[in-house]
TrEMBL record:
<dbReference type="InterPro" id="IPR038763">
    <property type="entry name" value="DHH_sf"/>
</dbReference>
<feature type="domain" description="DHHA1">
    <location>
        <begin position="231"/>
        <end position="313"/>
    </location>
</feature>
<feature type="region of interest" description="Disordered">
    <location>
        <begin position="317"/>
        <end position="339"/>
    </location>
</feature>
<dbReference type="GO" id="GO:0003676">
    <property type="term" value="F:nucleic acid binding"/>
</dbReference>
<protein>
    <submittedName>
        <fullName>DHH family protein</fullName>
    </submittedName>
</protein>
<feature type="domain" description="DDH">
    <location>
        <begin position="20"/>
        <end position="157"/>
    </location>
</feature>
<dbReference type="InterPro" id="IPR051319">
    <property type="entry name" value="Oligoribo/pAp-PDE_c-di-AMP_PDE"/>
</dbReference>
<dbReference type="Pfam" id="PF02272">
    <property type="entry name" value="DHHA1"/>
</dbReference>
<dbReference type="InterPro" id="IPR001667">
    <property type="entry name" value="DDH_dom"/>
</dbReference>
<dbReference type="Pfam" id="PF01368">
    <property type="entry name" value="DHH"/>
</dbReference>
<dbReference type="InterPro" id="IPR003156">
    <property type="entry name" value="DHHA1_dom"/>
</dbReference>
Length: 339
């Protein structure tokens, strides 16, 4: 839950600011896009005279709050410029080049605050989605609502919570969802927009599922190369969505997706139980205990990575067998989610 004191600090900074630039992480997901646009529509409704921009890649063709091409190359920003970043844990991942030139910066995020890069860092890592935090801020600060703001923020909550299934989903999540519903969200419509898929994507999943391999210990791995996706006219998000075909399968304890994209080997690691972040750290990555990301240097490293994950399963299972007769609450799994 966001403290009133923290919300007031944000409100004071916003009152003094013009323009306000809202930035998010590279390759935005719906929580990043939803938080950024949700916040932009709320601020525009509440402070109609302020200039508000959303920078970086977008998930849709929405042209609102576009900064124009000149903006990012601008040498001097007015001293009243405020940058608000959403859903972005590390500065390295921020989809905005002008950070160093920003006179005022605020970070609003729900990941562990390992990189407090802004002048003010409003972080709640108990929140399932950054969008949930924006809804709470709007409630505390009594911002004006529009149906667009409500729809964008609901998409962030719905996707980061895995449709209200992931570990950190709680009463606050449902309260935020109920609140945006009263502000104009049509649950059915949003669900159809996000989850009704096209045949091309399902055929891609089918192809990917057949390419997946599973180790004896239960590590599923899927390596997707340009030769796999080039002829299919898929964007990065669509390619990466193949990660989800490996989830929710009893025999698969850890699942790994490696995508070769623009000369990078991007790795996504997921599990229901095992601390995959500890392995991700070995491979230029990190993240949550059950959902982490990494980068590989060569394709040969996939074997090493899978071996490390096999060992992680064996070690964790041996450890839990040893401690089985002294039951204790697993605090770790409560602290970390899969957002
Ligand atoms: Mn998020």
């Amino acid at each position: 839950m966001i403290e009133k004191k923290a919300a007031k600090i944000l409100a004071r900074a916003i009152k003094k600011a013009d323009p306000i630039i809202i930035a998010k992480h590279q390759h935005p997901d719906w929580d990043a896009d939803g938080s950024a646009f949700g916040l932009a529509y709320l601020l525009k409704a509440s402070y109609p005279r302020k200039k508000i921009y959303v920078v970086g890649d977008r998930l849709t063709k929405n042209k609102d709050f576009e900064p124009g091409t000149a903006w990012e190359s601008k040498q001097v920003y007015p001293s009243t410029t405020l940058l608000i970043t959403v859903d972005t844990a590390n500065l390295e991942r921020l989809d905005f080049k002008g950070f160093a030139d920003m006179p005022h910066t605020i970070k609003i995020d729900h990941h562990p605050d390992t990189d407090p890069y802004a002048q003010y860092n409003l972080v709640d890592d108990s929140a399932i989605a950054c969008a949930q935090m924006i809804v709470q801020l709007a409630q505390i600060l009594k911002w004006k609502w529009t149906p667009e703001a409500a729809n964008y923020l609901y998409k962030g909550i719905l996707t980061d919570s895995g449709r209200f299934l992931h570990a950190k989903t709680n009463a606050e999540t449902f309260e935020a969802a109920a609140f945006v519903n009263k502000k104009g969200v049509n649950f059915q419509k949003v669900n159809d927009e996000l989850y009704v898929d096209c045949l091309k994507n399902r055929q891609w999943w089918n192809y990917a599922f057949n390419k997946m391999t599973i180790s004896q210990q239960g590590v599923a791995s899927l390596v997707l190369l340009p030769s796999d996706y080039e002829d299919r006219k898929l964007n990065y998000e669509q390619i990466k969505s193949a990660l989800s075909i490996m989830s929710g399968i009893e025999e698969i304890k850890i699942w790994v997706l490696v995508v070769e994209w623009k000369n990078d080997l991007k790795v996504s690691l997921r599990s229901r139980k095992y601390d995959v972040a500890s392995i991700a750290q070995k491979y230029h990555g990190g993240g949550h205990k059950l959902a982490a990301g990494a980068k590989l240097e060569t394709l040969e490293n996939v074997t090493t990575l899978v071996n490390d994950l096999n060992s992680l399963i064996v070690q964790t299972d041996t450890q839990s067998k040893k401690t089985i007769h002294q039951p204790q609450e697993n605090k770790e799994s409560k602290k970390h989610g899969t957002s």
